Amino acid sequence: MTVTRMYPRLVVSDARAAMAFYEKAFGAGVGEVFTDNSGKVVHAEVSFGSAGVIGVKDQGDGDEPVSVIMALEVADPDGVAAAMEAGGATVIYPIDDHEYGRGGRLRDPWGIQWMLMRP
């Protein structure tokens, strides 16, 4: 067997709002979006430039939100954290200098944790 692609899928309570948040906070781009007959997002792809793609979907149909930490290397962790907070994220660990770089962790409005780091 050969794996041809792998990416995380985030299960959230409101996929459209989460995608809008990721666009504003991270400059992400929303690609394909598929919905069911009720309008719930069953699959969407969000691109983080050359860093990769994640899947996002609404909870339900046996998929419930789970705890996950997404690690992002960014040029300006302070700026990204500020954009996240402006969009409703909460600080878990403030952006600060560490021996391994500058970074911190925030939780978005859907409970996903984002570790921001500039090595």
Automatic annotation (TrEMBL):
<dbReference type="InterPro" id="IPR029068">
    <property type="entry name" value="Glyas_Bleomycin-R_OHBP_Dase"/>
</dbReference>
<feature type="domain" description="VOC">
    <location>
        <begin position="4"/>
        <end position="119"/>
    </location>
</feature>
<dbReference type="InterPro" id="IPR004360">
    <property type="entry name" value="Glyas_Fos-R_dOase_dom"/>
</dbReference>
<dbReference type="Pfam" id="PF00903">
    <property type="entry name" value="Glyoxalase"/>
</dbReference>
<protein>
    <recommendedName>
        <fullName>VOC domain-containing protein</fullName>
    </recommendedName>
</protein>
<dbReference type="InterPro" id="IPR037523">
    <property type="entry name" value="VOC_core"/>
</dbReference>
